[in-house]
Design goal:
Mean pLDDT: 84
Protein name: Peptide/nickel transport system substrate-binding protein
Number of strands: 23
GO molecular function: peptide transmembrane transporter activity
Number of helices: 19
Helix content: 25-40%
Keywords: Signal
Pfam family, one: SBP_bac_5
Structural class: alpha+beta
Radius of gyration: 26 Å
CATH topology of the largest domain: Dipeptide-binding Protein, domain 3
Strand order of the largest sheet: 8-9-10-1-11-19-12
Organism: Glycomyces artemisiae
């Protein structure tokens, strides 16, 4: 049986299911967001946005169609990763143990069922891994070092490796969801990559698909989620409705009016709205407000002169002012990156001695001195240095059009480099063109932040040094820098357990390579954008309780974001105002309760005064927002 993508037909079916009525019935009354009034009771529904900029794709977890919550609310992982503790937490698995130098035994929880009533067993896990033998499956690389998967019994598996990559294996366990064998085995392996599953996936998670259309996807709570009995966890919202991201002004107003609960968007000026009624919650209650989630880095194409020269790149590092970007572009919502690029969660690995010897800070005079010492001089007097052959050159720094913060950051970086005598122009181009240029090496300079929060610094160094350089670089080493020694160390790091003394030694050696080679120049830490309203739901995760960030980004489910859904609690809704509730910071107009606001404005046609907030178009905080 061959599956094909028929999204319009599926979407039409979902819309009919959502707002069905007979020919004799009037159309269902909808609110300003296109939702049937009372279909999603406000006190039982969590409204989110910031992860989708278009209608849901296909519902195939293997091809990552981009459906918010598909992997996390629906399909689940063997383990979750505790960011604060830096440790794996059993989830679908009960335990995992290295029983030999290259042998790992995995035990699954008993009593887990798929949403169609079939039992979740070791066969499902083994089948999921076997899918990786098909070219094009995102996790196919695991078979470069995984030799065999053996089903020992219904709940036990034994994995045998040609090379025991401890760090890489831990990463795999919380980033790859398990699929049901009895559903997927109906398709040939190649069909799993080319086909689209229907909108009612068979899952183990706490939610199933309720409906979807061009503007949103709705999830509804399932009965019998295994974690309720096994772990005492119960997700609180009955419905989760993820909206296709509207404009930033709409998002802000929806939050402060209580029509939206969680926004995972870059939203400058959020400091003005974390007090008031209802207050907004951010991870920190003061700048930078957002937890660091990835490192934004200036990427030089090292196949082009003079960017192929580490000394030239070092001069660039001294020329760029991260503080200017933090303050002027982000208003303190982000922080400067450490010279190694390692995230703050890995602070214990920073080697102060190496940073003192080989690190860099913003010091324009040092940048000029380094350029001169390396032989880059302005012989023609135009204000810009020539390359070592005495030829003038100019460089383009590209970022995606519409990513307003990155556009401003690129202009700041280019201005700093020009001040140091390096001829650089910042340009905004279509996001797809940036992706293509980055993959194919057709660029001079760009900004990228694919080095993100994971279980291990190993992922950061893989991002910097991954070899061999391919025609299309898709997962890292976009600078195309070739250092065999650094890549060999990175591969060794993946095999070493975190409690092995050699682990720290390798990280220190790799930090030295990163600072001396500078295949990428760390500039700032991009935030895990997250603003939550306390109008309808409260108890959002914050730094004070050490919980995972309040985010619906895909990878955050593997970090335990599902626990957020078990920790928030509903606030009693008021149908009548007990007194005027004003916008924070003196904004105009009283606010009604969230429920009455949604229905009254639709029925009476009364206009609502809106907060004026024009910081430019938003970009999402998941895939696009971190590129």
């Amino acid at each position: 049986m061959t599956k094909r993508r028929h999204l319009p037909a599926l979407a039409a079916t979902a819309v009919l299911a959502t707002a069905a009525c007979s020919d004799d019935e009037p159309p269902a009354e909808t609110d300003a967001d296109g939702l049937v009034i009372d279909e999603f009771p406000r006190g039982e529904t969590l409204y989110t946005t910031g992860t989708a900029w278009g209608p849901p794709g296909d519902f195939n977890p293997v091809t990552a169609g981009g459906v918010t919550g598909l992997n996390g609310l629906g399909y689940e992982y063997l383990f979750l990763y505790d960011v604060e503790e830096q440790a794996l937490t059993p989830w679908l698995a009960e335990s995992g143990t290295w029983t030999g130098e290259r042998e790992f035994e995995l035990k699954l929880r008993a009593g887990i069922d798929w949403s169609d009533g079939e039992s979740f067993t070791a066969d499902d896990v083994a089948y999921t891994f076997e899918l990786g033998k098909t070219d094009g499956v995102p996790f196919a690389g695991v078979w470069d070092w995984l030799e065999a998967v053996e089903v020992v019994d219904e709940l036990t598996l034994r994995f045998t490796f040609t090379e025991a990559r401890h760090q890489e294996w831990d990463n795999f366990l919380y980033t790859n969801e398990i699929v049901p064998k009895h559903v997927f085995e109906a398709y040939a392996p190649e069909e799993v990559l080319t086909g689209a599953l229907g909108p009612d996936p068979v899952v183990t998670g706490p939610y199933r698909v309720h409906s979807f259309d061009e503007t949103r996807i709705a999830w509804v709570k399932r009965d019998g989620w295994w974690a309720t009995e096994a772990l005492g966890l119960d997700v609180r919202p009955r419905f989760i409705v993820d909206l296709v991201t509207p404009s930033n002004a709409d998002i802000l107003n929806m939050l402060i009016e209580g029509r939206l609960d969680l926004a995972n968007n870059f939203m400058p000026g959020v400091a003005d709205f974390i007090s008031g009624d209802p207050a907004l919650t951010t991870y920190y209650d003061k700048p930078p407000f957002m937890a660091p989630a990835n490192t934004a880095m200036l990427i030089p194409n090292t196949t082009r002169k003079p960017l192929d020269d580490p000394e030239f790149r070092r001069a660039m590092a001294f020329a760029v002012s991260p503080g200017q970007i933090v303050d002027a572009v982000y208003g303190g919502m982000v922080t400067e990156a450490h010279p190694t690029g390692l995230l703050p969660v890995w602070e214990r690995y920073y080697d102060a001695g190496i940073v003192e010897e080989d690190g860099f800070v913003f010091e324009p005079s040092q940048a000029v001195a380094l350029l001169g010492a390396a032989g880059y001089k302005d012989e023609d007097g135009d204000g810009f240095v020539e390359n070592l052959d005495g030829e003038p050159f100019s460089l383009r720094l590209i970022v995606p059009t519409g990513w307003t913060d990155w556009e401003d950051a690129a202009r700041s970086i280019a201005s700093d480099l020009v001040d140091a005598g390096i001829n650089v122009t910042a340009e905004s181009v279509d996001a797809a063109d940036v992706d293509a240029a980055r993959a194919g090496g057709d660029f001079d300079l760009l900004v990228n932040n694919d080095s993100r929060l994971t279980n291990s610094p190993w992922s950061h160094f893989r991002y910097l040094f991954q070899l061999p350089v391919a025609d299309a670089q898709l997962t890292g080493n976009y600078s195309r820098w070739e250092n065999e020694d650094a890549w060999e160390l990175t591969q060794e790091l993946s095999t070493v357990a975190s409690d092995d003394p050699r682990y720290m030694e390798i990280i220190a050696e790799l930090e030295r390579f990163a600072l001396r080679d500078l295949p990428a120049i760390p500039v700032w830490y991009n935030g895990a954008w997250s603003q939550a309203s306390n109008a309808v739901w409260t108890g959002w995760p914050t730094a004070d309780d050490g919980a995972v960030y309040a985010s619906a980004w895909d990878e955050m489910w593997g970090f335990g974001a599902v626990r957020m859904l078990t920790g928030i609690t509903p606030v009693e809704l008021r149908r009548k105002e007990t007194g005027p509730r004003r916008h924070p910071k003196g904004g105009a107009g009283p606010l009604s309760s969230p429920r009455s606001l949604r229905t009254r404005s639709r029925r009476s046609g009364r206009s609502r005064r809106r907060v004026r907030w024009t910081a430019g178009p938003l970009r999402r905080g998941s895939r696009a927002g971190r590129r």
